[in-house]
What does this fold into?
Amino acid sequence: MLGGLYCMYDKPWIWDTRHCWVNYPFHEIEHDVWWYYMMEMSLYWCLFFTQFSDIKRKDFAQMFIHHAATLALLMFSWANHMHRMGSFVLLIHDFSDHWLEMAKFAKYGGYENTCNVIFVVFASTWLYTRISIIPTIILYSTIFEAAQIVAMFPVYYIFNFLMTLLMILHVMWTYYILKIAYKGLISGDVEDSRSDSDADDEDDIIKDALASSEDASEEENQKQK
It folds into this structure.
């Protein structure tokens, strides 16, 4: 996040998204934006491949779609000189992710109060950036501002489709975040609701097996009678 802020704080399109489209596609690629893009793309390629060896969680399919859509956005925006809006999207995404990792570190280290505080910061930044800024500023700009300034072309629709897809995934993950926050308020303990997917599935399988075996035994008793 700090690296992204250092690269982007002085870019005019961060403060006025119309600069993403005025004089498009004749936008120079600044040296720091080039490095920012390459580092972020390397990160998402790494996440794309390592997700197959990570613990399978309830949102594995959503995470797969998210990484694939993000990589497609990065490549499309870079190839079509949409790097201004693309770098803005990257910056917004970087604001909340590290807080979640810090909360996990505190959780695994046994610092429950620290974990709870960091999770509140994470949830606040997530809601502000992913649920507020992306639809009201970024999607508004790509759908409405761009249509008023730039002649439409096929990649424009692909770009907006992928951005809308990411927004849908953000809404789904917001459900998980609010669910964790609700459980934390009730129990005083923050627990990732996705992490219990395997255990929940096993419990359901065991319960179904027990129920079916009980039904079978009851049928046999009835036949014997």
